[in-house]
């Protein structure tokens, strides 16, 4: 079975990796072996020699400092008994221990002391001989490593060099042939072919290249009738498109316009195709709008006394990194627009119809709380309060839906006038005092002095700041505080904002909070519809203002709205 190029590359890299592992493994083996043997020489045997010398010194000092000498001797004897490593050393150490016990009973016996010295000397000599033997063995291993490691390195270098010299040709040679073939095709030499006797990806690529060259050669020698047939087929495809399409070349000449486009332009094909767009612009307002207007917003066209909505899309046609022209495509979005209008009307109708009975039920709940009608038990008062809270929540949602339908329908009414900043802040604060009192939240004010009035609709401006305050109270902890700020942002704008010290919003989510029905993930808050900030943004845009947020997770959020100076 033929190996694919990917497999060959993997095998080649794996082979070099194995060579590297071989050199590294052999080197590590010998260095580790020599290191361990050297450690043995310096560790166990040297300690035994050291213990022996200390015991001899203790015997020599036995008459002068008997207690100290005895302590030193016994400590080193105990250490020696745990450090027996050489053949015959255990028996001598045992004999030494036995003679020492006898010596303690007859400490003035010179023969016993000489016997102890003799045993200690034999232990020292055994370990010195072992050190010499291990040192000789280490030297042999080093000499072996000096021979084996260079041989392996030389072998790997030879194999690796051979591999490096020959392996790149496996990839480079086919690429060179393919490059030559591509250059020939670029020069319109369609008879060029690539011959690679390979069963890998390069072989498949060469086969595909030869097929392409054959097709290009056949196309180059095709007759005029076939070209005309293809042109006619392309025109048929263009005319069958449901979307109105207009093609214009880089010189501004209209190449084609399907029947849908001609119907919208109220032109005949002979009056459009083949003519300069500048000439058509002079006698057709819609064509002038389509070719000059760069705004991608939907627009309205009246067709057969019916309003239709379209969006325009421009697709550039490029060849050899050069723009050869572009195609204008008009997409009919009338059905979607009608659905959107129906949705807006439905929301407005339902909201309006529900608001009246909810207001009536709220009035009835207030009457129930009036003690002149009758006294309620504690449980009944809690139920009434719960119903009142639900009623207020539904009323607030319906108000937001009505505001949303007003914005979407384009029927938003603004009474723009000069409004003092203090009036906006004070009215917004008055509306949230009860909510702040329930959570014992302190509202601080940082208002700059001598601020000029802003150009705004007073009701809508208060609504925006009130929404900021409501959210700040909602997402602040019990007994916390928030700050209302107002100051000059620049020479033409006043900024009013609300700073809370709650959970904050991640940077990636800060722009999404102004989308309709969007709520920050992970905040388990039952209240709210996700419409407040979206409606606030629509109100701010309608008053030519700017709305935004600055927030840090865990440190709080600052929502602001910038109004134009009146």
From TrEMBL:
Q: Which reaction does it catalyse?
A: ATP + protein L-histidine = ADP + protein N-phospho-L-histidine
**Which compartment or compartments is the protein found in?**
Membrane
Question: Where does the HAMP domain lie?
Answer: 169-221
The record's section on InterPro entries has: BphY/WalK/GraS-like, HAMP_dom, HATPase_C_sf, HATPase_dom, His_kinase_dom, HisK_dim/P_dom, HisK_dim/P_sf, PAS
Is Membrane found in the keyword set? yes
**Which keywords accompany this UniProt record?**
ATP-binding, Kinase, Membrane, Nucleotide-binding, Phosphoprotein, Transferase, Transmembrane, Transmembrane helix, Two-component regulatory system
Protein name, entry field: histidine kinase
User: What organism is recorded for this protein?
Assistant: Niastella soli
């Amino acid at each position: 079975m033929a190996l694919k190029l990917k497999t060959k590359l993997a095998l080649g890299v794996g082979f070099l990796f194995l060579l590297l592992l071989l050199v590294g493994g052999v080197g590590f083996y010998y260095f580790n072996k020599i290191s361990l043997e050297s450690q043995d020489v310096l560790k166990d045997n040297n300690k035994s020699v050291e213990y022996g010398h200390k015991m001899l010194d203790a015997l020599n000092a036995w008459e002068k400092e008997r207690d100290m000498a005895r302590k030193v001797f016994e400590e080193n004897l105990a250490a020696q008994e745990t450090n027996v490593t050489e053949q015959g050393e255990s028996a001598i150490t045992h004999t030494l221990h036995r003679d020492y016990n006898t010596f303690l009973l007859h400490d003035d016996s010179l023969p016993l002391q000489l016997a102890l010295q003799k045993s200690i000397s034999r232990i020292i000599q055994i370990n010195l001989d072992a050190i010499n033997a291990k040192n000789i063995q280490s030297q042999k291993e080093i000499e072996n490593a000096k021979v084996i490691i260079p041989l392996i390195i030389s072998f790997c270098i030879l194999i690796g060099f051979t591999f490096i010299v020959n392996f790149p040709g496996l990839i480079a040679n086919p690429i060179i042939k393919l490059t030559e073939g591509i250059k020939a095709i670029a020069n319109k030499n369609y008879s060029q072919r690539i011959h690679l006797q390979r069963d890998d990806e390069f072989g498949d690529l060469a086969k595909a290249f030869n097929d392409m060259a054959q097709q290009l050669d056949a196309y180059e020698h095709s007759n005029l009738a076939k070209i005309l047939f293809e042109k006619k087929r392309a025109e048929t495809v263009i005319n069958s498109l449901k979307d109105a399409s207009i093609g214009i070349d880089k010189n501004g000449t209209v190449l084609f316009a399907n029947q849908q486009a001609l119907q919208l332009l109220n032109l005949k094909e002979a009056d459009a195709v083949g003519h300069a767009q500048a000439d058509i612009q002079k006698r057709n307002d819609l064509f002038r709008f389509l070719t000059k207007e760069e705004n991608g917003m939907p627009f309205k066209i009246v067709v057969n006394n019916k309003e239709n909505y379209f969006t325009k899309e421009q697709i550039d046609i490029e060849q050899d990194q050069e723009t050869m022209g572009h195609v204008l495509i008009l997409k009919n979005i009338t059905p979607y627009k009608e659905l959107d209008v129906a949705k807006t009307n439905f929301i407005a109708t339902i909201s309006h119809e529900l608001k009246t009975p909810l207001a009536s039920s709220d009035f009835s709940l207030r009457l129930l709380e009036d003690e002149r009608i009758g006294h309620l038990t504690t449980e009944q008062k809690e139920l009434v309060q719960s119903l009142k809270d639900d009623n207020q929540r539904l009323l607030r949602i319906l108000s937001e839906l009505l505001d949303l339908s007003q914005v979407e329908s384009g029927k938003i009414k603004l009474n723009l006038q000069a409004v003092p900043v203090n009036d906006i802040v004070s009215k917004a604060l008055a509306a949230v005092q009860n909510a702040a009192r329930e959570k014992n939240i302190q509202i601080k004010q940082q208002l700059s002095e001598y601020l000029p009035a802003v150009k705004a609709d007073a009701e809508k401006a208060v609504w925006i700041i009130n929404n900021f305050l409501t959210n700040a109270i909602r997402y602040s902890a019990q007994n916390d505080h928030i700050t209302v700020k107002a100051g000059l942002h620049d020479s033409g704008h006043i900024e009013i904002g609300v700073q809370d010290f709650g959970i904050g919003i991640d940077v990636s989510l800060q722009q999404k909070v102004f989308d309709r029905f969007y709520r920050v993930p992970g905040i388990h808050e039952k209240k709210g519809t996700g419409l407040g900030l979206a409606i606030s943004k629509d109100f701010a845009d309608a008053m030519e203002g700017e709305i935004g947020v600055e927030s840090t997770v865990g440190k709080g959020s600052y929502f602001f709205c910038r109004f134009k100076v009146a």
